[in-house]
Design brief:
heterodimer; A: alpha+beta; D-Maltodextrin-Binding Protein, domain 2; three-stranded antiparallel β-sheet; 12% strand; B: 282 residues; mainly alpha; MetI-like fold
């Protein structure tokens, strides 16, 4: 799960450029603006969608590097879609940007309908790039009957890494940043990052974080930025906005002050999350961190991490993000794609893929809205002494910063914290 | 005279099948790197010939990177030459075939595997730390420490095997006869080592040392796995810039790569000059 997130993010970073170039070209080539906005096919009711969908074959383009995810789609989601008369065909791609490139190239060539891609598993930069290119069908997500199980005020579903979702993609999974500690060594676990920093100062050498630009280390920077500024709403939208410099200088001051209390006196940092995990496993530090806490159970079970490993619950919540299903504006089988996106939100489907043995993806639903018997099954899912249930883990989850922040934060850390004091 | 030209021409022809792909692959890679570093193949924006990428490099990063790269290469190559030559001479003198087989077996192990193994051995909570029962925080910082100990040891270990194999093969043909002749003329073991063995091994030492130095300057994985966050060797700096989410950093990454190649090429030229002198001595 952590690797999945990391790989997807890296793939996103690497793959965006070709897409960006294609977008720039398509912007000159054709008036794309009229493609965004509401569904021009104008489905008025779900009955029309369901009727149109029957007999369609939907191509779901998704990153194919996760065996469990592939198996879930083929063995659980596809049969359920077949029951509604929709054939679901999974098209594995090495990089989500490949799917977007295909759509943008088709639009650029003037192919406004009958496109090859019907549905894409997407989030963050690829969604934003597609949005700029007018590549997504918008305004269809409210039609989905199962969207009633979503919390309309959930900030993670309203914005995708800072880009407003605006009905252009339907939620599928959630991910949650978490810190873990060894309860045998940490008697009074901190309840905020500020308390954690104080704990680190009181226990020199027992805390550290992966050096950004590592994905997890970079997430820790964003979490710390929320802490020193007082929360996501206090952080300016972009790194060049008013107040951004003040926010980051407070962050650098805090982290530079913390440095001498870190592992090895802050002389060096673990190169990546795997290296931090090794330190934690070898009892060199008492904390580790991950964007995929569902993996912690397995690592405790196989003896890598101590049995006393626990996820740290922070009062103010931690970073979370969601990934989505989007329908290209020129998809050949939009109705079928909407049926699949709706099915993906069904509590039974969300429950099935939340099981770590099946896939282990956190649900996007609000469990209060789910029928009681199913909600109980979510609660019973793989009861863990290590990781709290997702509703507790995700309480007060902070939305991710805009993707524009990532590179400046990583560079700023290097200049101000890593090399600044030497 | 005529026969000599013909035979050297035939030799050149025989080398061609090996030379051609090497030149093509190397040339294409290097050419692409140079072109990208000069802004002629940008991922974003218009192609334009400029030295902007070179000028935009953070001078401190490049200079410290250069220092670290050269220091690691010099330390590990010196150590590799010492250990490799000693091992070769020991094998040659004692005629223990097993030792030669060990050296030959080490050569094909990838550095990545070697580095991971050395990490398991020397990390703060590695095998050695556990064997001596070190308390957390008390084991010396061999991995990721200020002196790059684990990095130099791994590179020296792998390269010493390479040196030993090259030196052994250079001694194998003639050394025994000359050594026995010198012994027959009354030369002691120390004299034979200095007057016979070392001069015979010198060209092989220069060649293998040069190759090892150039290799280490360009190697990435060992320093990444066993090194520290800052400062970083040139190869690590280049790869960090290459994988930066900001795609406009790509030309700078290639500029660092081109500089790294220049350093390695400089080492090869110096090695070739040294070889000429050593060969003349012989």
């Amino acid at each position: 799960m952590r690797r999945t997130t990391t790989r997807r993010t890296r793939a996103r970073a690497l793959g965006t450029l070709a897409t960006a170039a294609a977008v720039a070209l398509s912007a000159c080539a054709a008036p794309v603006s009229n493609r965004t906005g509401t569904a021009d096919d104008g489905y008025a009711s779900w009955e029309d969608v369901a009727a149109d969908a029957r007999g369609q074959e939907v191509s779901l383009w998704m990153w194919g590097g996760d065996e469990k995810g592939n198996a879930y789609v083929d063995d659980v989601l596809a049969p359920a879609a077949a029951d509604q008369g929709v054939t679901l065909r999974r098209v594995p791609v090495a990089d989500t940007a490949d799917a977007l490139n295909r759509v943008v190239s088709e639009l650029q060539a003037g192919q406004d309908s009958d496109g090859a891609v019907d549905l894409v598993w997407v989030n963050g930069e690829n969604f934003r790039t597609g949005q700029q290119a007018g590549a997504w069908e918008c305004g269809w997500t409210d039609l989905l009957p199962n969207s009633a199980y979503l919390d309309p005020t959930d900030p993670l579903l309203a914005e995708d890494f800072g880009t407003p979702v605006e009905g252009c993609e339907s939620p599928w999974h959630k991910a949650q940043f978490a810190l873990a500690y060894d309860a045998a060594d940490v008697q009074h676990p901190p309840t905020s990052l500020t308390e954690l920093f104080d704990w680190a100062r009181a226990h020199p050498g027992r805390f550290t974080y992966p050096a950004p630009p590592d994905f997890t280390g970079s997430a820790f920077l964003r979490q710390s930025l929320y802490e020193v500024t007082g929360g996501p709403e206090q952080v300016p939208a972009g790194p060049d906005d008013d107040g951004a410099a003040g926010a980051t200088s407070a962050l650098w001051a805090e982290l530079a002050d913390l440095e001498p209390s870190l592992w090895r006196g802050g002389d060096t940092y673990p190169r990546d999350a795997a290296a931090l995990d090794d330190l934690f496993a070898g009892d060199q530090v008492d904390f580790t961190m991950t964007y995929g806490p569902a993996t912690l159970d397995a690592r405790v079970a196989d003896g890598t991490f101590p049995e006393t490993t626990r996820v740290l619950t922070l009062d103010d919540g931690t970073l979370g993000n969601a990934s989505f299903l989007a329908i290209p504006a020129n998809a050949a089988h939009q109705a079928g794609a909407m049926v699949v996106a709706d099915l993906a939100l069904a509590p039974e489907q969300q429950l099935a893929k939340a099981d770590p043995a099946v896939w282990g993806q956190y649900p996007v639903l609000e469990l209060d809205r789910v029928p009681d018997d199913l909600a109980e099954q979510f609660a019973d899912l793989a009861p863990s002494t290590v990781v709290p249930p997702f509703d507790e883990l995700s309480r007060g989850a902070d939305p991710e910063l805009s993707a524009d922040w990532v590179a400046p934060l990583e560079r700023g850390w290097r200049d101000n914290v890593l090399t600044g004091q030497r | 005279m005529n026969r000599r030209t013909a035979s050297s021409r035939r030799a050149a022809l025989l080398v061609l099948p090996a030379l051609l792909p090497t030149v093509l692959v190397l040339g294409a890679g290097l050419g692409a790197a140079v072109i990208q570093s000069l802004g002629l193949l940008p991922l974003v924006g218009k192609p334009e010939l400029s030295s902007a990428a070179y000028r935009a490099l953070v001078v401190d990063d490049v200079l410290t990177g250069l220092g670290v790269s050269v220091a690691i290469a010099a330390a590990s190559t010196s150590l590799a030459l010492l250990v490799g030559a000693t091992a070769a001479v020991l094998v040659q003198r004692s005629r223990i075939g097993g030792l030669a087989a060990v050296a030959a077996a080490v050569v094909p192990i990838p550095h990545l595997v070697g580095a991971a193994t050395v990490g398991l051995l020397l990390a703060d909570s590695g095998l050695v730390a556990r064997l001596v029962g070190a308390q957390p925080g008390t084991f010396p910082a061999l991995v990721g420490g200020p002196w790059w100990v684990a990095v130099v040891l791994e590179l020296a270990w792998k390269e010493s095997a390479f040196v030993a194999v090259v030196v052994l093969s250079s001694l194998a043909t003639t050394e025994r006869d000359l050594d026995e002749a010198a012994a027959g003329l009354g030369a002691g073991p120390w004299q034979r080592l200095r007057r016979v063995t070392l001069p015979l091994a010198a060209p092989a030492l220069v060649v293998s040392g040069t190759i090892s130095f150039a290799y280490v300057v360009g190697s990435y994985e060992v320093a990444w796995l066993l090194g520290r966050t800052y400062p970083e060797p040139l190869a690590v700096l280049a790869f960090r810039l290459f994988s930066d989410t900001d795609l406009t950093m790509r030309p700078q990454a290639l500029a660092v790569a081109v500089l790294t190649v220049a350093v390695a090429a400089g080492a090869l030229v110096a090695g070739a000059a040294l070889l000429r002198r050593v060969a003349v001595l012989r």
